[in-house]
User: Fold this.
Amino acid sequence: MENSFDVLKLDHNGRGIIKKDGKTIFVPGATIGDTVKIKIVKDNKNYSVGNITCFIKKSCKRRERYCKYFDKCGGCSIGNLKYEEQLKYKEEKIKNIINRFLKEDIKINPIIYSKDLKYRNKITLHIKNGKIGLYKEQSNDIVDITECALVSDEINKLIKRVRRFLKRNRNNVREVVIRTTCIGHSMIKFIGDVNEDKAYNSFEDIDSIVINDKIIGARYITEELGKYKFKMSCDSFFQVNRFNTINLYNEVCRVIKGKKINKLIDLYCGTGTITIFVCKNAFEVLGIEKVESAVEAARLNRAINGASNVSFIDSKTENIINKFDNIDCIITDPPRCGMDKVTIDNLRRIASKMIIYVSCDAMTLVRDLNMLKDIYEIKEITPVDMFPNTHHVESIAVLERR
Assistant:
């Protein structure tokens, strides 16, 4: 079945939405203002999914094709939108989710935009059946790529070098992680069976080569954010947007500036980036992180940046948070799945004066805020575009005890 439809809006995953006989049809790759013909590829009781077969009219909100893999990879779910339209979409997405699920009139600040769209400082390449690239959306099929429109020029050069190395040498490599920093440091990790000597000889200019768990060269590479320097290992969590990360952290600092904070805890602190950024705003600061290598890096970062009032604990947040009390401010930056019930119950018990919740998923954010809003007033939420060309958006929620 093939029909022509006008695209009315986008869903929270960046898919176009059209209506037929009162039923919703989701169309990947379509955007507001398009008129398209589609073919239904999935038909459920409550909704359908359709693929575009041809365009009758293309929206003025669209931009020219910027990536040859756009309709294959699926990594850039809204990469077909002009950047100013992406920002509008993300602001509206946050407003819609907040209004629908929190049912409160909450101040939503303008989105903080990314100054460059080639923003990623890290990429993971998957290797299978001679293909080297990225997974198709919702699939384990690999799209063979020679470059990625989201990463820095430095990473794209390394992608080409990795491809030549893997093609030249018979290796049973399953995955390659490439990471770079703004000050010219780089790291490559191979997962699988690879000849160490050949890898070293091919990438001797790289600061750190990791083969499975073996490190050749530097254990850490260094990134610079404003006046601070941070060391990270290959497995450490570090924000991927090399331009907007400092804006995210500065926004957290803005929120707590001038507050009287004796003790502050930073949950899920990674390599201690936010912890160190905010340390001058509190008398005592503690970071909690479960990844051992990240905590090692965080302690180095404390020394490098002279953050003498900061300490770190190597633990899962839910395993240790019950030991704390009398905390003035809690910063939480959990993974996409949000916080577990043990952590939320302890946040309620501690009842700190302020919670700053940094979230990369608006749905888990509102779920967790709903469990806190009876004792906390949600003062403001600031969207931050950490992931241009995708439907993902970071948010900073500021909570003050009622």
Summary: The longest helix spans residues 83-102.
